[in-house]
Amino acid sequence: MPSISLTRHLIEEQRLGHVTPDLRLLLEVVARACKRISVAVGKGALGDVLGEAGGDEASINVQGEAQKKLDVISNEILLEANAWGGHLAACASEEMEHSQQIPDAFPRGNYLLVFDPLDGSSNIDINASVGTIFSVLRCPEGVTAAEDHHFLQPGSSQVAAGYCLYGPSTMLVLTIGHGTHAFTLDREQGSFVLTKAHMRIPEQTREFAINMSNQRHWEAPTQAYVDDLLAGKDGARGKDFNMRWVAAMVGDVHRILTRGGIFIYPWDRKDPSKPGKLRLMYEANPMAMLVEQAGGAATTGRERILDIAPTSLHQRVPVFLGSKDEVDTATRYHLQHDSAAA
Ligand code: AFP
């Protein structure tokens, strides 16, 4: 069976009218950047890429989080690749306060790219999985100088979404709205090869992913839902559950796309001003598109993530995503709580 490269897959999708030449070439540029990030991540302690950025003075990003060297390196790789890529009007990143237009001197296109250049970067120094998450939107008609507010489109407007998982193997998982497909990096050839077409998430699951250390800070319906998972076959759910937590969204989502499960990062009162930890534009939205395209579901516990009208580039949302029936059950706990409280 001849292997199908990412390039061939995207050309076949273009022939089917599922992707424009410009978007195809943009996705190839992003994939090449992810290959370079994979090389940098793979160097580990041999590559002077570990630890905090900024030397003696900790470098704090717009999220108020200490930046890792690889956060900065990965961001630079994606910016540089797309400056000359020729298919972007502007890009935005977890690591940058504002979006960045493609300078006039560079070739420009009609798409907006928003990304988390290195998701799960607290895993870097312990050699655990990390990843890059990206989302592609159309630049609004007639806009020649895209600004932050042009990115504020609901997740249902995404034309493509994907992640690259830097784990034991490097895998690119991508959707352009016609299924979710996985490609594995063939390091000898230097190309991504299709290894799983049309990923499907089982509708039911016995596996959940959540950071249990925050339990005392969750709101009542989240507590009730997780308590019932923990009660197992002796409780309301009548079956036992297992738990996993990678602490890198890309790793947890990839497991769910591979074998099912539910991933939860709920609202908690540790910082009541924040409606959740995960960011809508470059974590929740792209992952929600990938999961829905694989037959799963993604909500805030109350509403479909892809329907949210964004209000700011770095806004945060609660996230419940994965096996459709389980996400529906978790969402029902929250909606029933609200209607009882009303
Ligand atoms: P970092 O990029 O700061 O490691 O955060 C990763 C993340 O945004 C997401 O990828 C994980 O699912 C989640 O945070 C892990 O959060 P905890 O540190 O609370 O486990």
UniProtKB/TrEMBL annotation:
<dbReference type="InterPro" id="IPR000146">
    <property type="entry name" value="FBPase_class-1"/>
</dbReference>
<protein>
    <recommendedName>
        <fullName>Fructose-1,6-bisphosphatase class 1</fullName>
        <ecNumber>3.1.3.11</ecNumber>
    </recommendedName>
</protein>
<dbReference type="InterPro" id="IPR033391">
    <property type="entry name" value="FBPase_N"/>
</dbReference>
<feature type="binding site">
    <location>
        <position position="118"/>
    </location>
    <ligand>
        <name>Mg(2+) 1</name>
    </ligand>
</feature>
<dbReference type="GO" id="GO:0006000">
    <property type="term" value="P:fructose metabolic process"/>
</dbReference>
<keyword id="KW-0378">Hydrolase</keyword>
<keyword id="KW-0119">Carbohydrate metabolism</keyword>
<dbReference type="GO" id="GO:0000287">
    <property type="term" value="F:magnesium ion binding"/>
</dbReference>
<dbReference type="InterPro" id="IPR028343">
    <property type="entry name" value="FBPtase"/>
</dbReference>
<comment type="similarity">
    <text>Belongs to the FBPase class 1 family.</text>
</comment>
<comment type="pathway">
    <text>Carbohydrate biosynthesis.</text>
</comment>
<dbReference type="GO" id="GO:0030388">
    <property type="term" value="P:fructose 1,6-bisphosphate metabolic process"/>
</dbReference>
<dbReference type="GO" id="GO:0006002">
    <property type="term" value="P:fructose 6-phosphate metabolic process"/>
</dbReference>
<keyword id="KW-0479">Metal-binding</keyword>
<feature type="binding site">
    <location>
        <position position="116"/>
    </location>
    <ligand>
        <name>Mg(2+) 1</name>
    </ligand>
</feature>
<feature type="binding site">
    <location>
        <position position="94"/>
    </location>
    <ligand>
        <name>Mg(2+) 1</name>
    </ligand>
</feature>
<dbReference type="GO" id="GO:0006094">
    <property type="term" value="P:gluconeogenesis"/>
</dbReference>
<dbReference type="Pfam" id="PF00316">
    <property type="entry name" value="FBPase"/>
</dbReference>
<dbReference type="GO" id="GO:0005986">
    <property type="term" value="P:sucrose biosynthetic process"/>
</dbReference>
<feature type="binding site">
    <location>
        <begin position="119"/>
        <end position="122"/>
    </location>
    <ligand>
        <name>substrate</name>
    </ligand>
</feature>
<dbReference type="Pfam" id="PF18913">
    <property type="entry name" value="FBPase_C"/>
</dbReference>
<feature type="binding site">
    <location>
        <position position="119"/>
    </location>
    <ligand>
        <name>Mg(2+) 2</name>
    </ligand>
</feature>
<dbReference type="InterPro" id="IPR044015">
    <property type="entry name" value="FBPase_C_dom"/>
</dbReference>
<feature type="binding site">
    <location>
        <position position="277"/>
    </location>
    <ligand>
        <name>substrate</name>
    </ligand>
</feature>
<dbReference type="GO" id="GO:0005829">
    <property type="term" value="C:cytosol"/>
</dbReference>
<feature type="binding site">
    <location>
        <position position="283"/>
    </location>
    <ligand>
        <name>Mg(2+) 2</name>
    </ligand>
</feature>
<feature type="binding site">
    <location>
        <position position="211"/>
    </location>
    <ligand>
        <name>substrate</name>
    </ligand>
</feature>
<keyword id="KW-0460">Magnesium</keyword>
<comment type="subunit">
    <text>Homotetramer.</text>
</comment>
<dbReference type="GO" id="GO:0042132">
    <property type="term" value="F:fructose 1,6-bisphosphate 1-phosphatase activity"/>
</dbReference>
<feature type="domain" description="Fructose-1-6-bisphosphatase class 1 C-terminal">
    <location>
        <begin position="201"/>
        <end position="334"/>
    </location>
</feature>
<feature type="binding site">
    <location>
        <position position="116"/>
    </location>
    <ligand>
        <name>Mg(2+) 2</name>
    </ligand>
</feature>
<feature type="domain" description="Fructose-1-6-bisphosphatase class I N-terminal">
    <location>
        <begin position="5"/>
        <end position="196"/>
    </location>
</feature>
<keyword id="KW-0963">Cytoplasm</keyword>
